[in-house]
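Entry:
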Amino acid sequence: MSSALERGAALSFLLLAAALPWSIAPMSIAVVLCGALTLACWWRPGGERWVRTPVDAAGLAWLAALAIAALAAEDRAGSVHRVTKGFLLAIVPLAAYHGRDPRLARRAVAVLIVSAAAATIFALATFVAQGGAFPVRVRGAVGHPLTYGGQAMLLAILSGSILLRSRDRRLMAGACALLALLAPALLGSYTRSAWIGAVVGFGIVIALTRPRWLPALAAALVALVLVMPSGYRERALSVFHPHGVWNRERLSLWDAGWRMFREHPVTGIGLQDLKPWVERYRSPEAHEPPHGHMHNVYLQILVTMGLVGFAAFAYLVVALVRTAARRIRVDQGSGEGDPLGMALRIAAVAAIAGFLVAGIFEWNFGDEELLHFLFTLVGLAFAASAWRGVRPAGPPSS
């Protein structure tokens, strides 16, 4: 019974890996199934227990800050149910538990790459069927270009790290093929925040693996901008035009958010949808329909959770980086770490950085599709810090 339970939990983790590149429904089902079976493994007599990570204490602090913001909100009914999103952080120890077995982790990465390739082909095929040019944007299974752009960004960072740092030829070939698919999908999402996040993430991956390639990366970016179709080039360069048509509305929204925070600085206005508040505070010159969030992670947290929430978020970010980067300098210096394990740790650190930079322009910390992936990667990275000289997994045993 114990062995069957372990096998079932392991298979459910592979199912979670397969669901990560798709939409929230299969992700949520896979997380609940994997969580239930893994809890049963933890509770059985003599079984392994919860894998403790630096995220544990930070996650409790984040949950407490969410609860405080919800209880202090004017609209408690609209805020309280959002506190449960803090429990997504349990994915980190869940992934760390299953990642203790390097062979299972390798299979999960392989399953993720294959599933991501299928999801990207689906996204590109749908894009082409709908016209293949702006204003049509690549949306993928998640159905929204901003969320899909973030998803493609994280997958691209992971693929790049595997390609540059792993020595498993099959995984490297899969990562290379996936990158070839993701490049047009990420471009076609027309999502500037994801583009910028991908550049930052790749910069960190190269800095930690091939630092001499950084000038080449810069030159490649310049060349890419020059050869882009005019509409995409205009979209990319619009980042530097604060008075451009896309940026004026965003700056007006941020101005309204800053005024909200100044009036509710300690615990914020609550976790509810912000549309009524934006209508109340935004400039009369704004033309876009009011948004339900701030299109900025840091301002969103200040507005909804105040300084209490912002302090908890900063603590959480530090904990995530510490978890992802565990022993990374030691193993790089000694060369003792498992190559794929190092690739996962570098990818996790780079993914967090890209995610946080993209969060300057979007409320991506509210996208559960992205958090499922990011927290799974961080948990695997933590577990991978204990791998030593493990050979690539062969075919599953019968």
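Residues 102-129 form the longest helix (28 residues).
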